Amino acid sequence: MENLGKITPYAVESELQAGREKGDPTERELRVTLEDAELWRKFQHITNEMIVTKNGRRMFPVLKVSVSGLDPSSMYSFLLDFVPADGCRWKFVNGEWVAAGRAEGRGEGRSHGGIYIHPDSPNFGAHWMKAAVTFNKVKLTNKVNGGGQIMLNSLHKYEPQLHIVCVGSRHRLVSNVSFKETQFIAVTAYQNEEITALKIKYNPFAKAFLDAKERYDVTTDLTHTQYPCLWTVGCSELSPSHSPCTALHGPISSESLMQPPNHGRVGGAGWPPGPTHSF
After folding, report:
1. What global pTM score does this model have?
2. 242-274 pLDDT, tens digit each
3. For 125-137, how does the pLDDT look when each residue is reduced to its tens digit (9 = 90+)?
4. What CATH number has the domain bearing residue 17?
5. pLDDT average, residue stretch 208-220
6. Is residue 32 domain-resident?
7. Does residue 142 form part of some domain?
8. Residue 41 maps to a domain
9. Burial class for 219, CB neighbours closer than 10 Å (0-12, 13-18, 19+)
10. Given Cys at both, which of 17, 126, 172, 262 links 72, Cβ 3.0 to 4.6 Å?
11. Is 43 exposed, middle or buried (0-12, 13-18, 19+ CB in 10 A)?
12. 82: three-class secondary structure by DSSP
């Protein structure tokens, strides 16, 4: 490949197959572990929700992983995309999420939700292993607006998937890993009050919202006024909720990506067709 900063789906697949055929010994001890797994499970237990907005909203909990078993002197890029967790569209009815028909089509010509490239990419294996790899800057949107944001359909369930690619004279897919604990339904406003409460409790950026609510409770006659329960609480901003959208644009398309052996559970991620991506 002439440009080491470019990669195509075909190159990923062909390099992976070549590695399998020759028994490439690199990264055989690779281990990827989800950080804050217990926190993720608290949200998973009541079906997690993530806000999507026109301008993009950061995730909470923040996706973080610890990695071991990379070659310290090799160069790697870390990528993140979001694959549909099922084929359903969802709605919140009588306090629970229920399937409400088929997911929006992912036919030919529809845009991919996008791939987020970790800003430290590419970097040495030693760099990625020295501390948890944090995806705290990824933003979720419901509009096609570029800027490295991930576009998702509201009321659809997604699972973040991590791709590790060894870069150099020839790109090689090392692993693609996902964790069921991190599944969520994309929403324009939180539907479940329990999710709202958990976001406020564990998200340090939501403290201002909690303080405002407490002041409101003290100074307002709650027998005549009901405090709104559906607010969008993000990692960096607070805003009143809006009515959930029921039809948004541009669902993710998913194509099969060849699976590395013994490197975590793989959930069927897809590389977007068309232009190559800079690492």
Report:
1. 0.68
2. 333 323 233 333 332 333 444 444 333 344 433
3. 999 999 999 999 9
4. 2.60.40.820
5. 47
6. yes
7. yes
8. yes
9. exposed
10. 126
11. buried
12. strand
